[in-house]
Amino acid sequence: MVIRVGIRTLGLEESVQYYRRLKRGMNRALERGLKRSSNMLAQEMKRQAPAATGQLRESIEVRKASKFSFTIGARAPHAKFVEQGRSAGATAPPLRGTRFRRWLSSKGIGPRWQFAVARSIGRKGIPPRPFQQRAFELLQGKMFRELIKDFQKLVSRTRGR
Fold first, then answer.
1. Are 115 and 95 in contact (CB under 8 A)?
2. Cβ pair 81, 52 in contact under 8 A
């Protein structure tokens, strides 16, 4: 007695070609979606950032870190203190820098009060104003949907060939 076992495939070649096209497009779709999502996040960060002198908003940028990674953030030296605040008892801001003076003048505070304001900031601290975190929380779902949209377009285009 002989038992014969085998698999008969129908449409295997078409399926292989479909997955090859899908694989080629996935990298491009992912990179395109990440870039678009990163730019959306940067724009929202600019809207959320406090604008005393405008330096903080102008410093927000998107940089490509690797093939599938983008870095979004503010490069201004005071961005960290705006986002995270400053704890009470921390070192007062430096008086020599023009950035602090520019900030004071934008608030209508003259040079006469520089030392007093710096000392007060050192003693009392500054509450955080998490503009970056808030922007991410607002757009998190939308960013994910943008990525999904690119993959859906890819799958529908690939099927149509």
1. yes
2. no
Burial of 86 (0-12, 13-18, 19+ CB in 10 A): buried
More confident residue, 154 or 158: 154
What is the pTM assigned to this prediction? 0.74
Task: Tell me the residue range of the domain where 23 lies.
Answer: 13-75+131-160
Say if 122 falls within a structural domain. Answer: yes
Of the candidates 79, 91, 77, the one whose C-alpha atom is nearest the C-alpha of residue 125 is 91
Encode pLDDT of 14-50 as tens digits. Answer: 777 777 777 777 888 888 888 899 999 999 999 999 8
- Residues 6+ positions from 45 with CB-CB distance below 8 Å: 60, 72, 73, 74, 131, 132, 135
Q: What's the total number of domains in the chain?
A: 2
3 state DSSP class of 95:
coil
Question: At 24, which amino acid appears?
Answer: R
Residue 78, pLDDT above cutoff 90: no
